[in-house]
Amino acid sequence: MDDREHSARQLVGFWFEQNKGWLHARLCRRLGCSQNADDIVSETFVRVLSLPDPAAIREPRALLTTIAQRLMQESWRRRDLERAYLQLFQHVPEPVQPSPEARELLIETLLQIDRLLDGLPGQGRAAFIHSQLGGMTYSQVAAELGISVSRVQQYMTEAFRLCYGALEES
Q1: What is the Cα–Cα distance from 87 to 99, expressed in whole angstroms?
Q2: Which tens digits make up the pLDDT trace of 121-132?
Q3: Which positions fall inside the RNA polymerase sigma factor 70 region 4 type domain (predicted)?
Q4: How far apart are CA 152 and CA 158, in angstroms?
Q5: Smallest Cα–Cα separation from 73: which of 102, 17, 107, 114?
Q6: Residue 168: phi, psi to the nearest 5?
Q7: Which among 58, 55, 69, 20 has a CA at the least distance from the CA of 41?
Q8: DSSP code of 38?
Q9: Contact 128/156 with Cβ under 8 angstroms?
């Protein structure tokens, strides 16, 4: 570990000691659960540690609040996806249901797709999901969402651009 990385860890450690109680209390009020707040506080500081230059941060509490808010939203999205997934498979016979491992992998994949399409508006995401996961044609998607086929095409072009961009980065 070089001096810069060591200094960054010390700085984030100082922020942790100064702000963990404040952030935890804030999250407890929002979440109503101390354990969930603990998890988000920990993950918040892990994300701060992964930033390229923590020393450049001028308002640590503002950054911590922003990161924690995003983590809460991710948690809520995951819960909503899990709930929708369980509802979908609640009427499927037991032998056909995926294993717990496969279920977890599917939920993680759906979350990755959700994050990948973060730049799209809600209808754009819905168009992509209906088309790619639901197997609907663009005409069917347009009818379902109450938009034009050309708008569906625009959304799909943007969604595919985001997907290809993510592939190029990995």
Answers
A1: 16
A2: 888 988 998 898
A3: 111-163
A4: 10
A5: 114
A6: -65, -30
A7: 20
A8: H
A9: yes
